[in-house]
UniProtKB/TrEMBL annotation:
Pfam families: AAA_11. GO terms for molecular function: helicase activity. Coiled coil: none annotated. It comes from the Eukaryota. Residues 42-139 form the DNA2/NAM7 helicase helicase domain. InterPro entries: DNA2/NAM7-like, DNA2/NAM7_AAA_11, P-loop_NTPase, Papain-like_cys_pep_sf. This is Os12g0148301 protein.
Length: 450
């Protein structure tokens, strides 16, 4: 029946069919035959119309032969239809009716799952006897959340996006169908998603290894200290996660003690350096302080518990031009976070959601005659370093085959970093606190060993 209706639709769209011939084809009785003269399209249209009428009569006869129960209410009819259906379409909220009638569902498919908040998807996920769950959506589109509190506390995240960030298996539709003009289905080739590897919400040996996001405040210029301490904490977390069994490292380095130790090591208060000793020299001095003097740690689970000084064993500045970014990507794949800096221009504060920052030489931010630079901890990248590198490392950290192939054949050329401006900065939802910077904007990068 559907096939015949599609054929009628195609005939009606034929430009050679005149209005008079179409009226003639539809004005006759369904059981009659007639000569349409030289209009073959109208004759074929009439044949299809008559075939539809025959199918409808047969359907009516078959329906009368079915022994259907008598329904007293509309609810009884709906329950009967649902219990005898192979496929059921409904909204996420109305899916609770399926639980009320104790209907067993084998497979759940949530379309446009990227537009639903997590609490909305909990309703269908509570259905009993689910064996398979498929989430379909576009990660570029986010749920609409009007409440700012929800956004800050990550309640505006979709389950679809959260699973993507956790590295769950995903399949890209290379050929999908969308509704075009006149209700016709139009084939649309999907755009291959850009590759990106980060340690955001990615466990290593079942433990998360990124340091908590810091907030230096709007007026403080302590990004060098915060990024150095965050890198140190993350490297200690990596070591503890690599133990058998894995353990947690909950120590948070104290910024006040870091300021004190920095002054003891350098002989001057942080921020009072000479103009030429800021920027890269300041970052080197911070790492030197962590190596020679260490910084007092605070137990993240017990603030009253006294901790000994936390130190790093060594550090060195990476010669980016000599070593190339492939070596940097390899370190990040292994979980060896890096600390570094990039120059800041005015467009840094004008980025759209998810946009990669690139330094604008025409709009630099200059303070006291020096171009402002910003220190961060690098936690990922968006540029594949070759098949061999990815094959050796991504498989070891439970990266799915699809993500591996996606990263092999695409390049976007940036680093992902953890900032020190709290969770209001950067990526939307629970990725808040992170950003992206183009490779060509990187000024310096340091490797730290603990």
């Amino acid at each position: 029946m559907i096939k015949v209706l599609d054929e009628i639709e195609d005939l009606l769209g034929n430009r050679n069919l005149s209005d008079g011939s179409m009226r003639k084809a539809f004005e006759v009785e369904a059981v009659q035959t007639f000569d349409t003269g030289d209009c073959g399209i109208a004759e074929e249209l009439n044949d299809k119309r008559m075939k539809c009428a025959q199918l409808l009569r047969k359907f009516k006869e078959d329906l009368q032969s079915i022994d259907l129960p008598t329904f007293k209410t509309r609810e009884d009819l709906e329950e009967f239809c649902m219990k005898n259906s192979s496929i059921i379409f409904c909204s996420t909220n109305n899916s609770f009716h399926l639980r009320e009638i104790q209907l067993k569902i084998d497979c759940l498919i949530i379309d446009s799952a990227n537009l639903f908040n997590e609490y909305e998807t909990l309703v269908p996920l509570c259905l009993p006897s689910l064996h398979s769950i498929i989430l379909a959506g576009d990660e570029a589109k986010k749920p609409t959340v009007g409440n700012q509190v929800y956004q800050q506390d990550a309640f505006g995240v979709s389950l679809f996006q959260r699973l993507l960030d956790l590295g769950f298996n995903q399949h890209l539709l290379l050929d999908q169908y969308i509704t075009g003009q006149h209700g016709r289905r139009v084939s649309s080739k999907s755009k291959v998603l850009k590759p990106e590897f980060t340690w955001i919400a990615r466990p290593h040996n079942r433990k998360y290894i990124l340091a908590p996001i810091r907030d230096q405040g709007p007026k403080a210029v302590t990004c060098v200290l915060h990024s150095s301490m965050a890198t140190t904490e993350s490297l200690y977390k990596l070591i503890c996660a690599s133990h058998d069994p894995p353990t947690d490292f909950n120590v948070i380095l104290d910024i006040q003690d870091m300021l004190l130790q920095y002054k003891e090591e350098t002989g001057y208060t942080y921020g009072d350096e000479l103009r030429g000793e800021r920027g890269q020299i300041r970052l080197e001095k911070a790492l030197q302080t962590l190596k020679k003097r260490g910084v007092r740690g605070i137990d993240g689970c017990d603030n009253d518990k006294k901790m000994e000084q936390i130190r790093i064993s060594s550090f060195r500045r990476i010669d980016i031009e000599a070593e190339g970014f492939e070596q940097i990507f390899e370190r990040l794949l292994q979980g060896r976070m890096l600390v570094g800096s990039f120059k800041v221009s005015c467009n840094y504060f004008e980025l759209a959601e998810g946009e990669v920052y690139h330094y604008d030489y025409a709009r630099p931010i200059v303070r006291d005659g020096v171009t402002w630079s910003h220190a961060v901890m690098f936690v990922g990248f968006g540029d594949p370093a070759g098949d061999v590198l990815l094959d050796n490392h991504l498989a070891a950290i439970d990266t799915c085959d699809f993500e591996l192939e996606r990263m092999k054949h695409n390049s976007i050329g940036h680093l992902v970093y953890q900032n020190s401006y709290g969770k209001l900065f950067g990526f939307p939802h629970f990725r808040c606190g992170y950003g992206r910077v183009g490779l060509q904007s990187i000024v310096s990068m340091w490797e730290v060993t603990v």
